[in-house]
Every structure is written in structure tokens, then in C-alpha cells.
Amino acid sequence: MISLPTRLLLPALLLTSLLQAQVSSTSNIVGFTTVPIEGNPSGTRLNLNSLSLTTNIDYQSAATSLGTNTIIDSTGSWADDAFNGSNGAYYLEIVTSAGSATGPGVGNTYRISDTSTAPATITLNEPLAPGVSLPLTYRVRKYWTLASVFGATNSSGLQGGTQTSADQILLWNGNRHQTFYYQTSGIGGTGWRQTGDQHTDASSTLIEPTAGVVVKRGQSSTLNVIISGALKTGQTTVSVNQGYNYIGNPFGADMTLASSGLFTGDNATGIAAGTDAASSDQVQLWNGSAYITYYYNSTSGGWRSATDPSINAGTTSIPYGSSFIIRRLSSSSFSWKMPQHPSSL
Fold first, then answer.
1. Which of 230, 250, 269 is the last residue of a domain?
2. Which of 53, 171, 303, 343 sits CB 3.0–4.6 Å from 314 for a disulfide?
């Protein structure tokens, strides 16, 4: 059985700031959230989660020049290898490009492969997106990992054991789910492991900002995992490829199908519409007992459910703290540009 988490909890002070404050896109609004991992007295239960908070901002500034895969910042004050190597894995996010919060490449993230001084340069593991240009602002954050979310020694309290008896964490790698668990004894020692590899420490496995985090719980009780971090602000961009895409809502607020920005009217920049679910790209949401398939109807001009195409489904929620599936029919990919939620930030 699969379950979406219940609504995530944020402290009252943070909720007040969400409702009242006008905060710039580079603000580091911090708080905590509770991710419920529900159990099942009669067997296992899958929980389709997202983390809803990012790690705190470690650095933010404006670039002074750009290379193919480099950002140079004449004001940069970091040390060599500050955001890579033994300090852990970090990523750079484009906050504004060409002077706009919705300019080319805004919301894209890149893993940092090198940080150097004189001149202060951040080298990325892939080229910047086409059209990215100055004026440009960026921020640097550390990646979530299995250890930073669930604890280096499983302080979150997931059931440990073997790859068959322990609770499992499933992360999508673009082609398939990779499965991780906390090993408590036996050959290979104690620690986070990937199924099929009892010996290699998997605690530093990265969790992308838009990752869907699926937890397979084999216990009857619900476990609450507490995460401290920062709210994601600004546009968020994620690549949607042919086939199945498992994506988490990265914001600390619900989206709807209509507000998500998934349909743009152009198949090159958004989902493809069709006359029915079979001829359209699909968004699949779990309702507690089954997946409900949604699509954008090209005839009626609105979001529809495959089970009830007569009713406009644009207000259907994609809850924060949840993950979901986008099924892309076309062989071409598109960059989904998620508008900031809530828009008042």
C-alpha cells in the first residue's frame, strides 16, 4: 500500500513570515518540518515524500563574468575547495539571469566540481544552460544526503537490519529506483548501504532538491522524521524526460495542477496536451488508495482526470511534502519551470 504523508508542520513563527513578510528571492527563511513515515500493521507501506526544505544557503552573490561551466565572482571570499572535495557536495542555483528572476536558466542547479581563488571561480560539472547571461545572481547550498536527512547512525529511527528486513529508501536515478537501508550487523558492518552492496558506505548518497523520496516502511507504527532547513524560494527548474519522472514538490506550500506551470501551450516547454489521457502526457497523483491520472485536454482547454474528464481538475493539489509521477510520451525533454510557491514570498 502507498501513502502520501500527512500535511507537513512548520513552526508558527515561520508560518507567520510566509503569510506576512515580503521576502526577496535570496532570503534564507529557516524552520523545521516533520515528514511522517506511515506504517502498516498488516505489511509494508510505501510513503511518497519530498523534503520540502532545502539546506541553508552557504553563499549568495552576483557573478562578474561567466564561462561555459564557470562562474567568476570578483567579490568571492571563499577558500580553495570550500564547496567541493572533503567539505562535501554542494550545488549552485541560478537565482536571476539576464537581470530577471524568470530569465534563461533561472532555477537550474549544478553540482560544483571545484572552487578556487584568485580569481574567485566556481566550476560546475556541466555547462550552463543556453542563454544564461549577466547580470546574474546565484546561491550555493550543500546537498541533502542520506546521513544529513536520516542521521549518520540512523537517528531518525527507521527500522535497521538487512536489505530484506530493514525499512528501505528509494531514490530515482533517472532510469530506475535505487534502494538504500540501514544495516545493523553482519558482513559489511553497520551503516547506510545500497541493496546488493553490503560493504560500501552509502551515507553520502545525494538527494536532489526536487527528488521524490520514497520510504518503504515495514513496521506498524508511524515514524516522524524532523528536518531543519530553509524554505525554497524563487523559480525551480527540473528536466522532464521521456517515460516516468519521479519528482517531489520542493516548496513549503501546496501547488495545484493549474499553478504548477506544467502546461504552457508548447510541447517544447511543457507537457503535451491531448484529447484523452492515452494521447497526453500524464501527471499521476496518489489519493491514498490509488493513482489518479490527470492530463491537459486539448479540446476543452483544461486539466482533466482520466476517471472524470467532464470536470475541470485545475485546482487539484500537489501537496507539499509529497512526490508524484510525470509520464512523458514524447522522446524530447523539456525544462519544467515551477513558479515559486507561495507566490507571496
1. 230
2. 303
- Quick one: DSSP state of residue 254? -
C-alpha 259/C-alpha 316 separation (Å) is: 10
| Model pLDDT for residues 46-104, shown as the tens digit of each residue | 899 999 999 999 999 999 999 999 999 999 999 999 999 999 999 999 999 999 999 99
243 & 220 share domain: no
With respect to residue 41, please indicate whether it lies within any of the assigned structural domains: yes
34 in a structural domain: yes
> Closest Cα to residue 120, out of 167, 54, 161, 65?
65
**105 in any annotated domain:** yes
**Do residues 136 and 62 make contact, with C-beta atoms less than 8 angstroms apart?**
yes
Q: How far is it, in rounded angstroms, from Cα 194 to Cα 201?
A: 8
Are 90 and 142 a contacting pair, CB within 8 Å? yes
Q: Which residue has the cell 511518497?
A: 48
- CA-CA distance, 191 to 218, in Å (whole number)? 19
Q: Which of 142, 168, 202 is the last residue of a domain?
A: 142
Distance between alpha carbon 130 and the CA centroid of its chain, in Å? 22
Q: What is the pTM of this model?
A: 0.90
Side chain identity at residue 117, one-letter code: T
CB 274, CB 297: distance < 8 Å: yes
C-alpha 106: how far from chain center: 16
Cell 517544447 belongs to 268
